[in-house]
Amino acid sequence: MTASPDPTAALIGELTEGGLTIAVAESLTGGLLTAELIRVPGASLCVNGGVVAYQTELKHTLLGVDAGLLAEHGPVHPEVAIQMARGVRTRLAVAGRDADLGVATTGVAGPDPQGGQSPGTVFLGLSRGSEGWAIPLRLTGDRAAIRAQTVARAIEAVHTLIARSRPE
């Protein structure tokens, strides 16, 4: 019987081989995504770090998310996710160099709705260069399950981002 592949270890390998760095901005995952990335030996070669901006105001003050956007739509919004991912790339620059990739998590883990959004409503934000993307998720389960699924889907999303950036 062969061991199942470790998607996070594979991602760290891809980042390292490509000479890419990543920075993480988290809200509902509260550090779980960064912890998952740095669980892999050698992650220090590519993981710049992570910011947990759980309170809405910190998304603005620490990550540069537009205050008007937050006031109008709240923290659980696709553009908030994108701005978090962009902001963390510059906030966690190393030796004057922005991280190559930014990934962000924002959403409602539950058990109660937040700001009119139901539990399981999640947005992943991705940023590379001048581009940014949001991935909407509708997850089910309890709070722990939603947070764990968000981490797994974020790892998968970064894999996909790297793959589509490779030359043919």
How would you summarize what this structure contains?
The protein is α/β, with parallel strands linked by helices and 168 residues long. The chain has helices at residues 7-17, 32-38, 56-61, 67-73, 78-91, 143-165; strands at residues 22-26, 47-52, 101-107, 121-128, 131-138.
Structure description:
- Keywords: Hydrolase.
- This is Nicotinamide-nucleotide amidohydrolase family protein.
- InterPro entries: CinA-like_C, CinA_C.
- Residues 10-160 form the CinA C-terminal domain.
- GO terms for molecular function: hydrolase activity.
- 42% of the residues are buried.
- The chain is globular.
- The chain has a single domain (19-165), classed as Maf protein.
- It has 168 residues and is an alpha/beta fold.
- α1 (7-17) packs parallel to α6 (143-165).
- The chain contains six helices and five strands; from the N terminus they run αβαβαααβββα.
- It has helices spanning 7-17, 32-38, 56-61, 67-73, 78-91, 143-165, and strands at 22-26, 47-52, 101-107, 121-128, 131-138.
- It starts with 6 loop residues before the first helix and ends with a helix.
- 40% of the residues lie in helices and 20% in strands.
- A five-stranded mixed β-sheet has the order 2-1-3-4-5.
